Amino acid sequence: MTEKTDLLSMLPGEVEEYCKSIGEPRFRAGQIFKWMHTGASFDEMSNLSKALREKLKENAVLYFPEIAEKFVSAKDGTVKYLWRLYDGQNVESVFMRYHHGNTICISTQAGCRMGCAFCASTLGGKVRDLLPAEMLGQVIMAQRDMGERISGIVLMGIGEPFDNYENVVKFLRLVNDPAGLNIGYRHISLSTCGVVDGIDRFLGEDIPVTLSVSLHAPTDALRSEIMPINRKWNIEKLLGAAVRYFEKTGRRISFEYTLIAGKNDTKEGAQQLVATMRKYVGRRMPIHVNLIPVNPIKEREFEASEQESIKKFAEYLEKNGIVATVRRTLGPDINASCGQLRNKKNQDEKNALH
Ligand code: SAH
Predict the structure, then answer these.
(1) Which of 61, 214, 235, 262 would be a feasible disulfide site paired with 4, CB 3.0-4.6 Å?
(2) By alpha-carbon position, which residue is closest to atom 20 of ligand 1?
């Protein structure tokens, strides 16, 4: 980071203040804000005078990530970006095509400190939080590179959004701004591993995005084993917060459940999940469980469930009033499970040093 002003992290009102502080009229702020959100550099802001562009270059900086690597799936057109940030850190995004439009999955931190046992993003711990500009920059730069509008965002890449609370909230307001990308909150999903005080704080923000809760286990014993966060906020507390979120926003919660062979994908597991949901949620909100076959990482022994167990698990939930969908896996040929590319890059860089 430099002493320069991080202009891309600023909301329109803040850009106005900034313009005032450097002796520029207010309407300049609108022009600059629009330009930034197309991915333009200061030099490309062609309706600003040369003198102003020079002044901006001296005093401000746009923390756009640069494309370090790009992989296009031959199977389904999914595109994975490995970005290089200003300090050399790498994070990932995935661009996905759905029938309802293009969606991007973005990272919120460089690394993660939540320690989930099956997840590649947490292997090297957390290095730092991303700036609002760096989250926004992933969307802007992917859109610019693809030449196609992105209409949906999921915060399901590297990092725990509620462990970078202020910057994530700022990013959500930026990406929703009518003068910028103007992406509706209804087209944004935020996924959390279960940071309950984050969920409760978020309730007060009036940002009605879809909340995804990474549940992954039906009992506290198993959840604490594979997700350390459960030792701080157990399933009862987590489901309580999920219900409060639903009651306040009216937005349906989606529960992520990664199926790991022999661990949480058994008949008993399905029965326990139904019992847990009955006990702590009951009829207070509709329940939707998204089943995801685990994407095995080489550092851990977890294996994906058999198709047959997935089917049976889903059927059992459905029979008991829980809507269950099985996540379609996109881009399996390009390491599209977040965290895998960043690790590989870190590993390669280490090896190159020796
Ligand atoms: N920290 C947030 C968001 C990032 S992870 C969270 O935990 O929700 C996005 C989703 O991918 C989470 O549900 C996470 O548990 C899941 N995930 C992580 N590693 C995975 C793997 N190897 N296979 C399948 N899903 C995985």
Answers:
(1) 61
(2) 119
Candidate list 19, 112, 119, 338, residue with the active-site label: 338
Q: How far is residue 65's CA from residue 32's CA, in Å, rounded to a whole number?
A: 19
Residue-wise pLDDT tens digits, 95-132: 999 989 999 999 999 999 999 999 999 999 999 999 99
Of all protein residues, the one whose alpha carbon is nearest to atom 21 of ligand 1 is 295
- 261 and 304 in contact (C-beta within 8 Å)? yes
* DSSP per-residue string spanning 80-145: EEEEE-TTS-EEEEEEEEETTEEEEE--SEEE-SS--TT-GGGTT-EEEEPPHHHHHHHHHHHHHH
* Nearest atom within ligand 1 for CA of residue 212: 8
Of 179, 87, 163, 174, the residue nearest 135 (C-alpha): 174
DSSP 262-279: TTT-SHHHHHHHHHHHHH
Mean pLDDT of the chain: 94
Q: How far apart are CA 275 and CA 220, in angstroms?
A: 13
Stretch 9-31: mean pLDDT, rounded? 96
- Please indicate whether residue 338 is annotated as part of the active site: yes
Determine the Cα–Cα distance for residues 42 and 56; give it in Å rounded to an integer. 7
pTM of the model: 0.95
